[in-house]
TrEMBL record:
Transmembrane domains' residue ranges: 9-27, 47-66, 73-92, 98-124, 136-155, 161-179, 191-208, 228-246, 258-279, 291-311, 349-370, 382-408, 415-432, 466-486, 498-515
Gene3D superfamilies cross-referenced by the UniProt entry: Alkaline Phosphatase, subunit A
Organism in which the protein naturally occurs: Lactobacillus rodentium
Subcellular location(s) of the protein: Cell membrane
Protein name as catalogued: Phosphoglycerol transferase
Length: 976
């Protein structure tokens, strides 16, 4: 065969390989146990292309030196960098700082495992060549065979393409390619090898499609069975790839740099997790995926031309490569170190300052934590947790400290003074956070910084020894600063350089205003630095993100879109309007709220297990909520529309206590942390009582409840670790949590302790996840089933445990109601489940949006209340929002209303139930009494006006000026 024909065939085969590697993305299928044969065949084909590609790249006739390894590294690094930039420009949320870090040092990161293997292989290729030269053909073949089987035997099973171990394992394939290249070529052998390859591949495909289906035990042995066929160094994979390679190796010498680059880039880009993740987000339609693959091919071809020209023709490219033109790795590292050392020497003051701020950032995080451990995350070691999962949090904090330093330096022109001021600010903030956490179980919020003006009041709350230590520390810092400024003064640069630093510092300190705006790149950039706020646990958030980022994350939160026409005048008109409406409603009501006792009970994760889609209970097994189901027939009851699935407790509690609906708020808003602290007082149902309390048989640090309840005007909060002891403590079986019976017994103690009317807020924990096998005598094991896929880590036993817990709650509720029926005081008891437990896979939520958010509730008036005017039932109760409980409870108790409660009454009576848009995750949605979604456009003019009135009042107490609080709170205060 002529060289020209061979060259053309080599080009065609290379292009075919490139197209096959890219095309494998098109057929990439998720694991499906119902079609395991097709899945296995696809995995075999995908890995065959990768292993064959490594053999080919090992055999390509390119220089064997560090310089070529450097070209491979630079080509791959820049290629992956461009891919990440493009993907992150399309999807901001894909960007993570560790990916840049990992691409620069691929060996320590799984950014692209295939790239890791290729880089190592090409830097060591000269040593592999020396090995092959040292032994004979047979000797090197035997050694390679032994090494291949040894790696296969000891490297374990289940290593997938995303594992960073995967890349280095492929090095053996590259060495096999070098070995096969050196073997004498025979057309007869090539034909035999190709026939054997076809036969072996046919057998593998046949076994995948036939044997795996005929022998179920083979499927059960997965992933061991999968490992045999698709493991990179398995005998089957190396043999099939080697057969194919030898049959085509005559064309290898004609593969030049351009084709090499494209094969190389096809392997690393299609195997990089960020690209695969993005590709899997695309619609599954053939057209979209084909277009994306075609565009990527064009971009890679263009890039290959540019990179080849740049590294070989341009002066800068040649200069970069020459850095790697060394005889051995030792000289290379010495050369790199000399260049790095020289650069650091010229800019040592900047780097030492930045390193100091990183240490300072770490120290601030350590101070906030509890003796170096994260109290809210099973007391994990703070150092290792940050290093392993949030390593860029201290870097981001240090960048802000450096920016602050530049601002102060521009003003003072003194290096040590500026450094000391930044130190005092960040350490002072960290110490203040730690003190507040120790005193009140929560960190400092941005809205509380103004409290620094009340220094005299704050100092009275702090241990005098801490104040003395602080003063001594400040004196020492001032003394050291003066000494350093006199003895070791530093030039701080020209006015121009300081001005540039000042401007850049101001710009950086403006960015936190967008930390909570998902419509901006700044939002995703802060998340890329591992700054992921945990709004449900602000104390944990402060411990792992540090005091500075915690303040940024809780500041400038846009809680709600401003309704049209919001003004003090508009609010006054609404107040007057509903004062009149309250008088109309109160004409037909005889009881006053201040004379009643109201109990709200948030029952953790409570819902009817039989309401789960596809749930079935075996015949003859007792109903897990027999009592509540019977009670619901004679009292107000129905479905409550929860704003969350598997979470969102505090949001539902906020709705029930205030009457405000989270559906009108922006997504991801945590009202307890981001709304309530913005106001000195926040209206709630409890404000209408001379005495209000809350009982929670768990830790009280979550959701900032301690400070929120004070803002609500509560007199008492009982929780584990509070000054009020939890009595009658009892756990069920092996459960971690105190039981509902414990909660109700403590509620009874509170009723007995305070003889007058009162408001009690109960929050249970008994049915909180996890749902391990807590209960030894559980009749629901293997007796209740779900047909839908369940959440990872949840199994039928978990569902049985949850069901048994519901039965225990049902029994505890029955006993509690029997006891409050014996009390000669009017009591209204509101019971509701805050959300479904995360038992069904969340991918199913869009198929059952209403059903999987509709928990059970009931409102019960005790015997004494019914004898004194309370009702058994109220209307419009089949589907309600949590915010409807206040007006419904007042109606059931025949209780007079305030102007605000009159507004809530109109909303509950005349509007469909309000909740969040479940499919979008935020925004308002309406549900009618039949459980059907209702379009806002279908509302009447009167309903739209009512909704607008409600939104204006909620905005006034979410992001507005609180005009409704300025008239002695009379708008919210019930008529007594």
């Amino acid at each position: 065969m002529s060289k020209r024909i061979s060259r053309v065939v080599a080009y065609l085969l290379s292009i075919g390989l490139i197209l096959a590697i890219w095309g494998s993305l098109f057929f990439n299928r998720p694991y499906n146990p119902n079609n395991i044969g097709l899945y296995q065949t696809g995995k075999y084909g995908e890995l065959l292309l990768i292993v064959f590609g490594f053999m080919l790249l090992g055999a390509v006739d390119l220089p064997i030196n560090f310089r070529q390894g450097a070209k491979v590294w630079l080509t791959g690094y820049i290629g992956l960098f461009i891919v990440q930039v493009i993907i992150c420009a399309i999807n901001y949320d894909q960007f993570k700082m560790w990916q840049l870090f990992g691409m620069f040092l691929p060996i320590i990161s799984g950014v692209s495992p295939i790239f890791t293997g290729l880089v190592i292989f090409f830097f060591l290729k000269k040593y592999f060549a020396t090995f092959l030269d040292h032994f004979t053909y047979q000797q090197s073949g035997i050694i390679l065979t032994f090494i291949s089987f040894l790696i296969w035997a000891i490297s374990g099973t289940g290593i997938g393409l995303a594992s960073n171990v995967f890349g280095p394992l492929l090095i053996i394939a590259g060495v096999w390619g070098m070995w096969l290249k050196r073997q004498e070529y025979s057309l007869r052998r090539a034909i035999i090898c190709f026939i054997c390859f076809i036969g072996l591949s046919g057998f593998i495909i046949w076994s995948n499609q036939t044997l795996l289906l005929q022998f179920p035990d083979v499927q059960k042995s997965m992933p061991a069975g999968m490992t045999f066929l698709d493991y990179p160094v398995s005998a089957v994979m190396l043999l099939s790839s080697g057969l194919l390679f030898y049959s085509l190796k005559i064309f290898v010498p004609f593969i030049k740099q351009f084709l090499f680059n494209n094969i190389f880039l096809a392997l690393i880009i299609t195997g990089s997790p960020i690209f695969i993740t993005y590709f899997n987000y695309l619609p599954s339609g053939k057209k979209v995926r084909s277009i994306v693959i075609f565009i990527c091919l064009l971009l890679v071809v263009f890039y290959s031309v540019v990179i080849e020209y740049g590294l070989n023709k341009l002066k800068l490219g040649r200069k970069i490569i020459q850095v790697f033109d060394q005889d051995n790795l030792g000289k290379l590292m010495v050369n790199i170190w000399k260049n790095v050392k020289s650069y650091l020497g010229r800019h040592k003051l900047f780097f030492w300052t930045f390193l100091y701020f990183i240490i300072l950032a770490w120290l601030s995080i350590f101070i906030v934590s509890k003796q170096g451990r994260i109290d809210g995350l099973n007391s994990q070691n703070i150092f290792w947790y940050i290093l392993a999962q949030r390593m860029f949090v201290p870097v981001l904090t240090a960048l802000f400290l450096l920016a602050l330093f530049a601002i102060i330096l521009f003003i003072t022109t003194r290096y040590w003074v500026s450094l000391s001021l930044v130190t005092v600010i960040i350490l002072g903030l960290a110490i203040a956070d730690q003190i507040k956490i120790s005193l009140r179980g929560e960190p400092i919020y941005p809205t509380e910084l103004k409290e620094a003006l009340n220094a005299n009041t704050l100092l009275g709350m702090i241990d005098p020894s801490i104040i003395i230590a602080t003063v001594i520390g400040l004196v020492i810092i001032i003394g050291v600063t003066i000494f350093l400024e006199i003895k070791f003064p530093h030039r701080v640069g020209s006015i121009k350089s300081r001005l540039i630093g000042f401007i850049l510092g101001i710009l950086l300190w403006c960015t936190p205003s967008q930390f909570n705006n998902p419509n901006t790149p700044i939002y995703y950039l802060s998340r890329a630095f591992d700054n992921n706020p945990i709004y449900s646990a602000p104390t944990v958030d402060a411990e792992i993100n540090g005091p500075l980022l915690m303040l940024f994350d809780y500041s400038n939160v846009a809680t709600m879109d401003k309704p049209a026409g919001y003004s003090q005048t508009a609010i006054r008109k609404i107040e007057q309007k509903y004062q009149k409406q309250a008088k109309i409603i109160n004409q037909n009501r005889s009881n006053k709220l201040g004379n009643q006792t109201m109990i709200f009970n948030l029952s953790e994760s409570f819902t009817d297990p039989l309401n789960f889609p596809t749930a079935k209970l075996a015949s003859g097994v007792s109903d897990p909520m027999k009592y509540i189901r019977t009670l619901s027939e004679t009292t107000t009851s129905g479905k409550m529309l929860s704003g969350g699935y598997g979470g969102g407790t505090a949001k539902m509690e906020y709705e029930s206590l205030t009457g405000f609906n989270i559906g009108t708020l922006k997504g991801q808003i945590m009202p307890y942390q981001q709304i309530v602290p913005s106001y000195p007082f926040y209206p709630s149902l409890g404000m209408n009582y001379a005495y209000s309390s809350a009982i929670h048989p768990f830790f009280g640090t979550y959701y900032s409840r301690q400070s929120v309840y004070k803002t609500f005007g509560f007199d008492k909060f009982v929780f584990i670790g509070s000054k009020y002891k939890i009595h009658h403590q009892k756990k069920l079986g092996k459960s971690w949590y105190l039981s509902d019976e414990t909660l109700y017994r403590n509620a009874e103690d509170q009723l007995a302790e305070h003889k007058g009317s009162q408001f009690i807020n109960l929050i249970s924990m008994q049915n909180h996840l996890p749902y391990n096998n807590w209960y030894s005598h559980n009749e629901y094991l293997n007796k209740i089933k779900l047909g839908l896929p369940q959440t990872s880590g949840i199994d039928p036993q978990s569902f049985a445990t949850y069901t048994k817990g519901i039965q225990y709650t049902d029994q505890a509720v029955e006993n509690f109601i029997k006891r409050i029926d014996k009390i000669n005081r009017p009591i209204i008891f509101v019971f509701y489940g805050d959300h479904y437990p995360a038992i069904i896979d969340q991918n199913e939520l869009n198929n059952y949006p209403i059903q999987l958010h509709a928990t059970n509730y009931f409102i019960y008036a005790n015997k004494y209340a019914r004898e004194h005017g309370a009702k058994n039932k109220v209307s419009n109760s089949k589907y309600v929002s949590t915010a409807d409980f206040i007006p419904m409870a007042l109606e059931q108790g025949n209780i007079k209303v305030s102007p605000f409660q009159a507004l809530l009454t109109q909303v509950q009576k005349e509007l469909p139930a309000i909740t969040i848009n479940y499919k979008a995750g935020s925004g308002i949605e309406f549900v009618d009494q039949n459980g059907k979604e209702v379009s806002e456009k279908s509302l009447t003019k009167k309903q739209k006006q009512l909704l607008h009135d409600y939104e204006l009042i909620q905005y006034d107490m979410s992001q507005g000026n609180g005009y409704t609080l300025k008239a002695n709170k009379s708008f919210y205060k019930s008529a007594n």
